[in-house]
Design a protein that fits this description.
This protein is mainly alpha-helical. Among the domains are: 1-192 and 430-460, Serine Threonine Protein Phosphatase 5, Tetratricopeptide repeat (Alpha Horseshoe), CATH 1.25.40.390; 277-334, no CATH class. The chain is built from 20 helices and four strands. A hairpin with a 7-residue loop joins strand 2 (305-307) and strand 3. The radius of gyration is 22 Å and the shape is globular. The N and C termini lie far apart (54 Å).
Length: 460
């Protein structure tokens, strides 16, 4: 019990944003220079980095799912104006959700830097140091990957900096940001464990690296790294099992952000819940997407609303269903999926097709593995006779497979289909500059140097 209390106390200090923590006396127990010495202290710091991922889920969901053709709003309600603006592509640099996302992501990166900066001097085993560094660099890569896809050019910060130094750091080009992401993931995949009790693994690093390569249209590299995962994971027989809270860390999940119901600050409320299923934010495009005959696409149940656990009159999509610990604690413990094997199969299928359409190739096998799991008939070269039709089929399969998992908006950007799909899903004509978000005006004002820290085109 003392160990648990000690670690929680350390995490509290690490996650605090108070000025007091920054000004602790050098002789104090938790000063960075004398704190990062033991395995327990580095594990506590790493727990703080993972905790930041938990706090990013709501923000990530707002900026990806509400931007996509899955969700829409008829009109804003109390407290949802910023979300409405994101959904309708009316956002600007004063949007609070966008402001909070930037700050949250940068804070997460700085937490990782504290770990990587202090590891070299620690008198610990090399195997332990490589494992901890690999996890920190995986988290940093994931965070930078989200930032570069949301804002484009972002500051590259790979070490601890003072508040004064941070004001001199400009935005770096997208290509340089991707180099940092790739380097972090290459280190992580070579140094992380194969299994790690729900934390980052070598498989997670490979899957994320494959997505990074695919996003940059580096198809041979994506094929190589994603192929290493074939047979290392497996699809669950039923799609519902992937999200079953009694089957966490199942064979399909590669990396999820974990929660534990009944533990204060480690659980959460119901995601995407409504009290009236006739007023859901789902687009008609999503509601009409799933095959009903001759068999029902099994993924439809993951989108359909059902009563949320024991809470009367609160409904939640099947993908987020859970039951609370008791009727007095209405918090839940669903993990949020970041990477799973179905994603790997469809990414690999996409990369193989982009490299070279093959009517008898393995790209068809990987695509059909995902389809047939949900009771759909396999697709053949007769259905998909060329590269373009196969490309469309993979994108649509991803549309059916990944609602509410933060994939769709980035899929549309990667495949250059955002304009068409947002028009068909929401009836909105978006402009090219709206593929990126505005940089928060608060950040522009802090730096106050447009030559190094500029606003994205279209938002000036």
């Amino acid at each position: 019990m003392k160990t648990i209390i000690y670690i929680l106390s350390v995490v509290f200090l690490l996650t605090s944003c108070s000025k007091d923590f920054l000004e602790i006396d050098p002789e104090g127990d938790f000063n960075a220079e004398n704190f990062y010495k033991t395995e327990g202290e580095f594990n506590a710091a790493l727990t703080g980095a993972y905790a930041k991922l938990q706090g990013q889920i709501d923000i990530y969901f707002e900026l990806t799912e509400y931007r996509s053709d899955y969700l829409d709003f008829a009109a804003p309600t109390a407290g949802t104006q910023d979300r409405f603006d994101i959904t309708k592509f009316q956002d600007n640099s004063a949007n609070v959700l966008i402001r909070d996302a930037w700050a949250n992501y940068m804070n997460g990166i700085l937490r990782c830097n504290v770990i990587t900066d202090n590891l070299p001097a620690a008198n610990l085993s090399e195997s332990f140091k490589k494992q901890i560094e690999g996890e920190a660099r995986f988290i940093r890569a994931l965070t930078y990957f989200n930032m570069v896809r949301l804002w484009g050019d972002v500051p590259i910060i790979l070490k601890q900096v003072t508040p004064q130094e941070s004001l001199t750091l400009g935005r770096s080009p997208i290509s340089e940001v991707y180099k940092v992401i790739e380097n972090d993931l290459l280190f992580a995949k070579d140094n992380l464990k194969l299994t790690n009790n729900g934390r980052a693994t070598s498989g997670a690093a490979k899957a994320l690296l494959g997505k990074v390569y695919l996003t940059q249209k580096k198809y041979p590299e994506a094929i190589t790294v994603l192929s290493e995962l074939i047979g290392k994971y497996s699809l669950q027989p039923n799609i519902a099992d992937v999200f079953d809270t009694t089957k966490k860390q199942n064979s399909e999940l590669i990396f999820s952000i974990q929660f534990y119901k009944g533990i204060s600050t480690e659980d959460h409320g119901l995601w995407l819940s409504v009290s009236d299923v006739t007023t859901t934010p789902f687009t008609q495009k999503l509601l009409n997407a799933y095959q009903l005959a001759p068999v029902i696409d099994a993924r439809k149940a993951m989108v359909d609303y059902r009563l949320g656990g024991t809470k009367n009159n609160i409904f939640v999509p099947g993908k987020f269903y859970d039951t609370p610990v008791n009727t007095t604690n209405n918090n839940f413990g669903n993990d949020y999926t970041i990477l799973r094997y179905a994603d790997v199969l469809l990414m690999l299928s996409e990369a193989l097709n982009e490299e070279s359409y093959q009517p008898a190739g393995s790209a068809f096998d990987y695509l059909n593995d995902v389809r047939t799991r949900s009771k759909l008939t396999p697709l053949t070269p007769t259905n998909l006779p060329d590269q373009a039709s196969f490309r469309d089929a993979v994108l649509y399969e991803r549309f059916l497979e990944f609602p509410f998992e933060g994939q769709r908006w980035f899929d549309l950007i990667r495949t250059n289909t955002a304009t068409k799909e947002i028009k068909s899903g929401k009836g909105i004509n978006i402009l090219p500059y709206q593929l990126l978000y505005p940089v928060p005006q608060t950040e522009i004002q802090k730096i106050n140097n447009p030559s190094i820290f500029y606003q994205n085109e279209g938002y000036n």
